[in-house]
Backbone:
């Protein structure tokens, strides 16, 4: 069946069925662990942007990926803007003592001085379908507490770019 739509921060989404939900400081995480395999999706708390989508991606990548995982900085793939939210995507192979090697990726959304991002980690390609489905169902609102406009559906061009990037991951 269809998962119930939930809202958190600027995000509206259907949580992946059967995944464990956790909310450590500043993020909402979903985790699936099957033996040695793991999949993780984390919605990062939105905040003020840098003024450009490129700057937002660089800052988010540095704090969410580069610093904790010792990943190099990278040039993101650009996804078409959807109703004011610009999207940038990046991925890298990283390794941590507890998990070993895995793929990390970050989708960063920018709109009118707001920035939000979605972190996806996995050590096997079986998660890519779940990642794609989650991103295609993700909606972004204003983050304003009062008179928020209808959430924006991330679909069309950006979803196609997202799917192409995810489907093209090298494991």
Residues:
């Amino acid at each position: 069946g269809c998962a119930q739509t939930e809202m958190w921060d600027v995000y509206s989404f259907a949580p992946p069925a059967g995944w464990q939900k956790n909310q450590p400081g500043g993020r909402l995480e979903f985790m699936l662990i099957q033996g040695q395999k793991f999949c993780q999706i984390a919605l990062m708390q939105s905040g003020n942007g840098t003024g450009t989508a490129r700057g937002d991606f660089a800052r988010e990548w540095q704090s969410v990926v580069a610093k904790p995982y010792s990943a190099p900085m990278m040039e993101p793939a650009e996804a078409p803007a959807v109703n004011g939210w610009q999207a940038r995507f990046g991925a890298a192979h990283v390794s941590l003592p507890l998990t070993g090697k895995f793929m990390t990726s970050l989708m960063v959304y920018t709109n009118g001085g707001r920035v939000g991002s979605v972190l996806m980690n996995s050590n096997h390609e079986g998660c890519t379908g779940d990642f794609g489905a989650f991103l295609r169902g993700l909606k972004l609102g204003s983050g304003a507490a009062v008179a928020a406009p209808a959430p924006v559906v991330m679909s069309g061009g950006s979803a196609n770019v997202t799917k192409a990037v995810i489907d093209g991951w090298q494991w």
